[in-house]
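Notes from hallway chat w/ T.B., transcribed later so I don't forget. T.B. wanted the structure written out for a chain they're using in a teaching module, and asked if we could keep both sequence and structure tokens in one place. Agreed to drop them here.
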Amino acid sequence: MPKRTAKNRTIEVILLDSDKHLGEKFEVVRVTPIFAKNVLLPKQKAVLATPANLHSYQQKMAAAEAQRAKKAKSFEDMMQKIQQDGGIKIEKNTNEKGVLYSKIDAKEVAQLLSDTYSLKVEDHYLKLKKKITRSGEFLVPFQYGEFEKDVLLVVKGNVTKQKKVLSSMGVIKKAEPVEEGEAEKKTEETTEDKAE
């Protein structure tokens, strides 16, 4: 009996909807039979890639492939612009040690890329393993289909003293100097008020 490989333990399906974990609409992908039977086929998110289905979806698949190639090319152009710009820059508040007050995640980087280069970038294209917590330069892996590149992210720290920030927000108030004997009088007054 032939040894079972990963390929013969999966089946091919044509995706009818884009899925960030599987692929884009009208793309042929390999999935486990149980996942196809229990999730994709009942929810009409995919059809089996039989010769009949491949033939009936041929035009839509070709158009989607051309669209994906065009999108990959636009991402390639964006990467060249990022390289020319010396990376994509972001300014965040940090403490004196360079630790960010709010962490940077893939969603924030994707939004920054979309806003800067007027190109829709989804956060799952960025393979950021953990959030960025300090200022500095970071290489963020970017992947769209077969296209892979690292995005240089330059996080510039804007040092703010926490006490200064909190006092401006009214959280920390400046302590007023108290003369000797004044504190005792105030406590006596408050105890008298409570007694009444």
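Follow-up for T.B.: The two ends are 95 Å apart (CA to CA). Might be a good example for the class.
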